[in-house]
């Protein structure tokens, strides 16, 4: 029916290189997640600030991040900025693109989580003499993070998978980029990409499992 | 001393406080009774500045609560308030609920704050529940925790806003006992309550609010024994 001889051995010999690539993938995903959370908190703050321009800008960010392809966002970070003479490395563009996407999605999650926390919690904190910032930081924020924990885990998984889009802006050191490069010289297409998929799968499984352990430790209430 | 003078307050079109005058001396227990919507709870939240007032003044130890120059956070350290909905912090244990403000606001060390918190929690009968999360406590226990949380700041004044209204009837007693204890220890208290028997027992004076006006104020035996206004007579007849 088909004439394809599997050469798994050949492909598996490339495993060390692919695992190095996986490390870069995890690195980008983690960094984009940490930065994404920071920006998401800022975006959430901006949207609730009541300051119109700031709030509109933040809403614009969230809308674009959630309603356009991630590929477009990464492309813009590389070639879009490139048109204005801002030339970033593939690594940086990919990181910016995914961070932009993460921040948009997380900001929306955070906003929903905040709505779920009664105003009276802040009031109780203020009545104990806390400043607004203290009440937010010690009472509201921890509860918000708990409510957003599952969506955050999903976003982290999504960030790992999004790194594969980096290949379109010339990224060749991440798992997908490395696999693509190896394929170009060895033509073991099926084997290499099957191994890459298995590694992606393993990474995301480790993330969800780790998240569950972390949740059990952090949220005992 | 808490001095309330000619306080007016509206929510939109609705005027809920129509010129309230009330002075509460140190060590005094004043309870406020009255129908819902009579402005009792609003007055309490105005006393610690959680709600602004439209006119008049509220002074606590001579300091004007609603003066822009007043540091409200500082002032609130000496005015504890407990709400109808106890507002436990669900992500913190009972002990952490009580130590949070002393540590973050009064900048106490963990050990120092815990010592005070444990003492207050034992005081309200929760000494066995220190590492429990509020979600596992009954309403009455959560409310007593909220009282301990306010007391841990060593307030000079305590405001209680219908603290038993959201509780199952069988849990009301334990919370009222806690309030009785505080009253007997000489705490200056203003309690908004629907518990007439309690008001009669602990109060030095009872105030009756009706439609945003303080219609009567007198020692309990006088107020309950010989109500002067028709509104209070009706109110008492309805609540008995």
Automatic annotation (TrEMBL), chain A:
Subcellular localization, as worded in the UniProt entry: Cell inner membrane; Cell membrane
Domain ABC transmembrane type-1 positions: 22-211
Primary location recorded for the protein, binned into one broad class: membrane
Residues passing through the membrane, by range: 22-43, 156-173, 193-215
Membrane topology value: Multi-pass membrane protein
Keyword Transport annotated: yes
One GO molecular-function entry: L-cystine transmembrane transporter activity
Keywords (A to Z) from UniProt: Amino-acid transport, Cell membrane, Membrane, Transmembrane, Transmembrane helix, Transport
Cellular component terms (Gene Ontology): ATP-binding cassette (ABC) transporter complex
Recorded family membership: Belongs to the binding-protein-dependent transport system permease family. HisMQ subfamily.
The name this protein goes by in its record: ABC transporter permease
Organism: Paenirhodobacter enshiensis
Automatic annotation (TrEMBL), chain B:
Gene3D superfamilies: P-loop containing nucleotide triphosphate hydrolases (3.40.50.300)
Domain ABC transporter: 2-236
SMART domains named among the record's database cross-references: AAA (SM00382)
InterPro entries in UniProt: AAA+_ATPase (IPR003593), ABC_ATPase_HisP-typ (IPR030679), ABC_transporter-like_ATP-bd (IPR003439), ABC_transporter-like_CS (IPR017871), MetN_ABC_transporter-like (IPR050086), P-loop_NTPase (IPR027417)
Subcellular location: Cell membrane
Keyword Methyltransferase among UniProt keywords: no
Pfam families, A to Z: ABC_tran
Alphabetized GO MF terms: ABC-type amino acid transporter activity; ATP binding; ATP hydrolysis activity
Keyword terms: Amino-acid transport, ATP-binding, Cell membrane, Membrane, Nucleotide-binding, Transport
Membrane topology summary: Peripheral membrane protein
Main location, first listed in the record: membrane
Family according to the record: Belongs to the ABC transporter superfamily.
Protein name, entry field: Glutamine ABC transporter ATP-binding protein
Organism: Paenirhodobacter enshiensis
Gene: glnQ
């Amino acid at each position: 029916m088909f004439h394809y001889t599997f050469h798994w051995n050949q492909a598996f010999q490339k495993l060390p290189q692919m695992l190095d690539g996986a490390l870069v993938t995890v690195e980008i995903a983690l960094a984009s997640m940490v930065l994404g959370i920071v920006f998401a908190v800022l975006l959430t703050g901006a949207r609730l600030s009541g300051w119109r321009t700031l709030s509109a800008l933040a809403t614009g960010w969230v809308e674009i991040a959630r309603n356009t392809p991630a590929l477009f966002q990464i492309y813009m970070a590389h070639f879009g900025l490139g048109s204005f003479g801002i030339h970033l490395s593939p690594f940086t563009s990919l990181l910016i693109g995914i961070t932009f996407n993460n921040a948009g999605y997380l900001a929306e999650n955070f906003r929903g989580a905040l709505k779920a926390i009664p105003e009276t919690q802040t009031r109780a904190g203020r009545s104990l003499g806390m400043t607004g910032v203290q009440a937010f930081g010690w009472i509201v924020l921890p509860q918000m993070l708990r409510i957003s924990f599952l969506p955050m885990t999903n976003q982290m998984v999504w960030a790992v998978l999004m790194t594969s889009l980096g290949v379109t802006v010339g990224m060749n050191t991440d798992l997908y980029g490395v696999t693509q490069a190896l394929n170009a010289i060895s033509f073991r297409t099926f084997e290499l990409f099957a191994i890459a998929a298995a590694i992606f799968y393993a990474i995301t499984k480790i993330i969800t499992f780790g998240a569950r352990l972390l949740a059990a430790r952090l949220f005992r209430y | 001393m808490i001095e309330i003078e000619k306080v007016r307050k509206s929510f939109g079109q609705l005027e809920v406080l129509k010129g309230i005058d009330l002075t509460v001396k140190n060590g005094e227990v004043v309870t406020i009774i009255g129908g819902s919507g009579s402005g009792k709870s609003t007055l309490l939240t105005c006393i610690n500045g959680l709600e602004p007032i439209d006119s008049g003044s509220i002074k606590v130890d001579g300091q004007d609560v609603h003066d822009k120059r007043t540091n409200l956070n500082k002032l609130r350290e000496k005015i504890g308030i407990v709400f109808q909905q106890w507002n436990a912090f669900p992500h913190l244990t009972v002990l952490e609920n009580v130590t949070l403000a002393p540590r973050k606001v009064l900048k106490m060390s963990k050990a120092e704050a815990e010592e005070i918190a444990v003492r207050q929690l034992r005081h309200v009968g929760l000494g066995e529940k220190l590492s429990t999360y509020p979600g596992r406590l009954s309403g009455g226990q959560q409310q007593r925790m909220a009282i301990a949380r306010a007391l841990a700041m060593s307030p000079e004044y305590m405001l209680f806003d219908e603290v038993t209204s959201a509780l199952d009837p069988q849990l009301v007693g334990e919370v009222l006992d806690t309030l009785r204890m505080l009253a007997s220890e000489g705490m200056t208290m203003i309690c908004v309550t629907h518990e007439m028997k309690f008001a009669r027992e602990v109060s030095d004076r009872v105030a009756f609010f009706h439609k945003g006006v303080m219609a009567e104020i007198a020692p309990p035996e006088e107020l309950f024994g010989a109500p002067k206004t028709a509104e209070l007579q009706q109110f008492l007849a309805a609540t008995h």
